[in-house]
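Our platform keeps sequence and structure together, in a single record for each protein. Such a record has a labelled line for the sequence and another for the backbone structure tokens. The tokens are whole numbers drawn from a learned vocabulary of local backbone shapes. The remainder of this section carries one protein's record, kept here as part of the documentation:
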Amino acid sequence: MWLSNSSIGRKVVMSVTGIALVLFLTFHMLMNLVALFSAEGYNTVCEFLGTNWYALIGTLALAALFVIHIVYAFWLTMLNRAARGNERYAVSAKPKTVEWASQNMLALGVIVILGLLLHLFNFWYNMMFAELIGNPMMGGLEATDGYGYIVQTFSNPVFFVLYIVWLCALWFHLTHGFWSSMQTLGWNNTTWINRWKCISNIYSTIIVLGFMLVAVVFFVKNLF
């Protein structure tokens, strides 16, 4: 199949799944910002999502996107390394046009995955999963009390620092991945690729700052 047997096909899969995940991150960030204004409003959103059939379908689809994106990322990396062979050990000056993020996408991806696992443990496991197994108080709070879990998570300094590190890695990953996806999908002329790089930097910064704002505000609230 073209999407798995060719280098371009594999890059297209990476690009499409990556863009879909960026759209999800946008929704998730906007949803989290609600918590800054209203605990009741945020919990209403959490309850609306909960374990309803559409939320479960969305969760399964999202999980599939993550798995496909991660598998293809490692697959492409291994194929690229195999293609270079011993050349990758040669000492050479890095071209100025090659960004740091593009040289470290695998390492950044690993950090993003580890941060995702932490996030799933602190929230999805105690909320949706707890409801699914019929133990809505498994995490010590009601499964739909998303606001309470935000307070609980960011009252822990270790979790706060880990989330900040995760979000920094996510920023680097997004800034390169976003415009790289557009390049793969055909927006690769000199004019548009520069525009996409600018857009990806701005958009990624907005998403990450939105997440960071929630973490910082709740961490500072706990201090006072």
User: Anything to note?
Assistant: Residues 77 and 153 are 34 Å apart (CA to CA). The domain at 2-223 is CATH 1.20.1300 (3 helical TM bundles of succinate and fumarate reductases). The chain has one domain: 2-223.
